[in-house]
């Protein structure tokens, strides 16, 4: 299938705005629409349906559904030896509906004169017209010599939504196009949502009364007044997964194991809960790698299945990270052999892992295990003390609809110490989790590198990191409030 | 005690603050591990705290000796360093999209 190149918007002699579809390029062999013409040109008006646009619609418009009817035609030898399309014998080819973004700047209408038109790219093309043919504001189609397609374009723009402003307000906007531009710039990223439009109209009326407000800031305050829990920095695709991690509780068997482990003079083994941490913000992150072709096992040369590759990652975990090392817990010698065997077994549930984090070691426990994922929960442990953060982290893979796999690490955690968080905030230039981000970015890079070095193919998924205030998100994460409270409907 | 006279402490104050400042402006990844400062980071924190301690110690001494000129000089120095640090921090944080 080809692509639609231009939606033409023109202004006629009565200052009326019309739109046309003006170019279409089928795969391989296409035709081009030009602003002037020659012997093979056609009057576009025969095939193009003009659509009325007024200022209300201009402000509201973002997308248009365009139906293109392609007719297959033959050439015929016309007068003076010129070839013409035999339009009378055309047969229907196919009908395609496409949605295109209509892009233009409102203030360009200041620059337009009759016969000019604006393309999808926002480029202003000078008026048409040359010897002996239609000119003026009517767009002209021109086909290359060897083409034999005839395109009938019908533009159906059905997503215009009237802003609902009064005539006097529309006139004011016409005379204050700088403000119309501001409204457009505000409404465009807000996808012309009803709330945004309602707010924009009120802001415009305030502006007409001489009271100016910042549209973006004002709108945010307006939303926050409506819903104090409105948090716009949460990735809604991940929130349910993060909820599952935040609500995860270690099974009783693990709790029993922890209760019966030896202790030191200063510390017992104890799970650090997310709720009891002291950090003011909560880290919600996702670092993934999309694998379209699984790598080969370096030991056997056979291609991994997804379970096998995840298992390989777990058993060779230190090969896939940089900045920390993960080893079975051996700080208490009586536990060393048990934990090592457990971690290296096919079911590492309840195994305890010591993490050598520079200057601040930590311990985690495998609190959930399945073939496609496992969970680590942070532990307070003898001879290491608190893990610097409290929470749960998931390592695993998910299959996509196209058959590829996303191998990922996903975490929900908070700083155990508020002082450490503030120190990290200062040194991390405003991102207290920048060190952790580097660690999990290395996990992505190393998996990606491993896959591509072992006959697989993969690419890194951009990391998702949300750091809202714990107070604002706590009730959503623990399930007391719906995700719609934070704008995830 | 001759090593702890006012002149020596004054030199220590300037060195500590300058050292902490230099470490502060090098990229964060060189002074931070995963969740806490690395060795270099800890030296920065310790020297900065030491510098502050010396600042107040010398302030008390100068007030006692009514040495206004010295107070002005040191206060101006530490204020300039802190201001530059804040501006630098803000520019870095903004460029990273953190503020």
Q: What is the terminal-to-terminal distance of chain B?
A: 48 Å
One letter per element, helices H and strands E, the order of chain B comes to HHH
| Total domain count of chain B | 1
Topology-level CATH name of the largest domain in chain A: Alpha-D-Glucose-1,6-Bisphosphate, Chain A, domain 4
Binned strand content of chain A: 25-35%
Count the strands of chain B?
Answer: 0
**Alpha-beta classification of chain B:** mainly alpha
Structural class of chain A: alpha+beta
Number of helices of chain B: 3
Low-confidence stretches of chain B: none
Care to describe what's here?
- The complex is a heterodimer of chains A (about 500) and B (about 100).
- Chain A is of the alpha+beta class and about 500 residues long.
- Chain A has 3 domains: about 5-155, no CATH class; about 165-225, no CATH class; about 240-485, START domain (Alpha-D-Glucose-1,6-Bisphosphate, Chain A, domain 4, 2-Layer Sandwich).
- Chain A contains 12 helices and 19 strands.
- Chain A has helices at about 55-60, 165-175, 175-185, 195-210, 215-225, 240-245, 250-260, 305-315, 335-345, 420-425, 435-455, 470-475, and strands spanning about 5-10, 15-25, 40-45, 50-55, 65-75, 85-100, 115-120, 125, 140, 150-155, 270, 285-295, 325-330, 350-355, 360-370, 375-380, 390-400, 405-415, 455-465.
- In chain A, strands 11, 12, 13, 14, 15, 16, 17, 18 and 19 form a 9-stranded antiparallel sheet that branches.
- In chain A, α3 runs antiparallel to α4 (about 195-210).
- Chain A is elongated and about 85 Å long.
- Chain A starts with a strand and ends in a 12-residue tail after the last helix.
- Chain B is mainly α and about 100 residues long.
- Chain B has one domain (about 1-95).
- Helices cover about 75% and strands about 0% of the residues of chain B.
- Chain B is built from 3 helices and no strands.
- Chain B has helices spanning about 5-25, 40-65, 70-95.
- The longest helix of chain B is centred in the C-terminal third of the chain and has 28 residues, at about 70-95.
- Chains A and B meet through α10 and α11 of A and α2 and α3 of B.
- Chain B: Keywords: Membrane, Transmembrane, Transmembrane helix.
